[in-house]
Design brief:
The chain is of the alpha+beta class. The protein has 3 domains: about 240 residues, Thrombin, subunit H (Beta Barrel), CATH 2.40.10.120; about 100 residues, Pdz3 Domain (Roll); about 100 residues, PDZ domain (Pdz3 Domain). The chain is built from 12 helices and 28 strands. Strands 22, 23, 24, 25, 26, 27 and 28 form a 7-stranded antiparallel beta sheet that branches. Strand 3 and strand 4 form a beta hairpin. It is elongated, with a radius of gyration of 29 Å. It catalyses: Acts on substrates that are at least partially unfolded. The cleavage site P1 residue is normally between a pair of hydrophobic residues, such as Val-|-Val. Belongs to the peptidase S1C family. Keywords: Hydrolase, Periplasm, Protease, Repeat, Serine protease, Signal, Stress response.
């Protein structure tokens, strides 16, 4: 089995002291910093932070048989004495009141508000739990209330009521962390209780496909089972990350752990505290990455930004005039250097706020004012970004045209027969791909029979000859690639094909 990304497995396990390694190898010790004693020990800092880190124990009721439901009796030959024996046995079992079994799990968390008893952990630690118990460092058990949780960022907020004195830790600035900075991770690995490990920030802004707002800090501090929801500290004793996942071939730590950055967590936690749920900004677009080929075909000076593949009808973007084919390069003054940054920036924007959006359209930039909507409200209404629709589109009456080969594909005008064969929506206009050469760039880009080409070079096409003409025009203009807008069963995306 290859190395796998494992959620719900985050926790630190003791690692050899970096200073001890350096000393043993005759190397100079690392430079000391805040919270690190001259001897190279983290002991003072760990002693201060440990009381704020808690264990999270959850229980979930196991499925129970309905009253009167009898387990299946083994089949025996008719008249067998075993038939009566098993029937009597199961009847007696039904009459006994058996306690319901519960499944339990362990994770970690930390106190952020000692006065009001707020505790932060991972969503997957408490998801589907019937009971949640917070266990303090001195083994005090306190029942917890779930204030709110967010599956998109894997965060949850709990609240405990107790006269027991609590210790809280503050959030720090995760954006200030640099690759190579020291960090401490504290959690509950393998259910052993509070454990401390040290490491460094190995990388920032990692995307591990855990959710739409991935922006993880990567660390080599040992992370193992049970540490999910535990804090990662800088040397000032501030929480700069929440340990969430590891990359491992065996389920144990191999020095690749991931933590949710505190600057993302702070906003989610604040919303959970105020509303009991998240309230994110919403733009109403489907986007894709800008590759060098796409940038060249659009005349964009650099391959940056987020390419709008489709716009949700009546969404904020549609109402403001943003169009498919626009490249968002700035949102509310913030640079969008890569596609993944746009969803995070939009989500962090206040709902109903009017913001300037700078887009690249047809060879130049322009600024559009957009009033940000609410993502959760859009989800409740079932709004999804969709491709362009034309409800007044007439039915196809033209006869089928001869397939035309271009860019390694056979293209044909859409006919009623092809609509039925490839399940193409009645309102969709364009040119259907009926065959793709296996050795072509189109095949490498994932195009296949049944895909519908809606635009070529950001201009609509209706017949294969339109495609051929636009390809020829692009070649005459010495363009290296050409941009296609392709629909695959309602899923829109842009594909840049080389013209060589």
């Amino acid at each position: 089995m290859t190395a796998a990304l494992l959620l719900a497995l985050a926790a630190p396990v003791a690692a050899p002291s970096m200073a001890a390694k350096a000393h043993a190898q005759g190397q100079p010790q690392v430079q000391t910093g805040p919270g690190r004693a001259a001897t190279g020990s983290f002991a003072d800092l760990a002693e201060k932070l440990l009381p704020a880190v808690v264990n999270i124990s959850t229980s979930q009721a196991a499925p129970q048989r309905q009253p009167g439901q009898r387990p299946e009796i083994p089949q025996f030959p008719p008249g067998s004495p075993f038939e009566d024996f098993f029937r009597d046995f199961f009847d007696r079992q039904q009459q006994q009141d058996q306690p319901q079994r519960k499944a339990t799990s362990l994770g970690s968390g930390f106190v952020i508000d000692a006065t009001n008893g707020y505790v932060v952990t991972n969503n997957h630690v408490v998801q589907d739990a019937d009971e949640i118990t917070v266990i303090l460092q001195d083994d005090t058990n306190i029942k917890a209330e779930l204030v709110g949780r967010d599956g998109k960022t894997d965060l949850a907020l709990l609240k405990i009521k107790t006269s027991h004195p609590l210790t809280a830790v503050p959030f720090g600035d995760s954006d200030a962390m640099r690759v190579g900075d020291w960090v401490l991770a504290i959690g509950n690995p393998f259910g052993l209780g509070g454990s401390v490990t040290a490491g460094i920030i190995s990388a920032r802004q990692r995307n591990i496909d855990a959710g739409p707002y991935d922006d993880f800090l990567q660390t080599d501090a040992s992370i193992n089972r049970g540490n999910s929801g535990g804090p990662m500290f800088n040397l000032n004793g501030e929480v700069i990350g929440i340990n969430t996942a590891i990359f491992s071939p065996s389920g144990g730590s191999v020095g690749i752990g991931f933590a949710i950055p505190s600057n993302l967590a702070k906003q989610v936690v604040a919303q959970l505290k105020e509303y009991g749920k998240t309230r994110r900004g919403w733009l109403g677009v489907r986007i894709q990455a800008v590759t060098p080929e796409i940038a060249e075909s659009l005349g964009l000076p650099a391959h940056k930004g987020a390419l709008v593949a489709s716009v949700t009808p009546d969404g904020p973007a549609a109402k403001s005039g943003i169009q498919a084919g626009d490249v968002v390069i700035k949102f509310d003054g913030k640079e969008i250097n890569e596609m993944r940054r746009l969803p995070r920036v939009v989500a962090e924007t206040a709902i109903e706020k009017a913001v300037p959006v700078e887009v690249w359209r047809k060879g130049k930039t322009q600024t559009i004012q957009v009033k940000v909507g609410e993502l959760e409200a859009a989800e409740e209404q079932g709004l999804l970004a969709a491709g362009p629709e034309d409800k007044q589109a007439p039915k196809d009456k033209a006869p089928a045209q001869k397939p035309t080969e271009s860019l390694g594909m056979k293209l044909t005008a859409i006919t009623p027969e092809l609509r039925q064969q490839y399940d193409i929506k009645p309102e969709l206009k364009g040119v259907v791909i009926t065959e793709v050469s296996s050795s072509s760039t189109a095949a490498e880009k994932g195009l296949k029979a049944g895909d519908v080409v809606l635009e070529v070079g950001q201009e609509e096409v209706r017949k294969p000859e339109d495609v051929t003409a636009k390809v020829q025009k692009a070649k005459e203009q010495s363009k290296k690639s050409i941009l296609l807008l392709v629909d695959r069963k309602g899923d829109l995306r842009f594909v840049a094909l080389p013209l060589s």
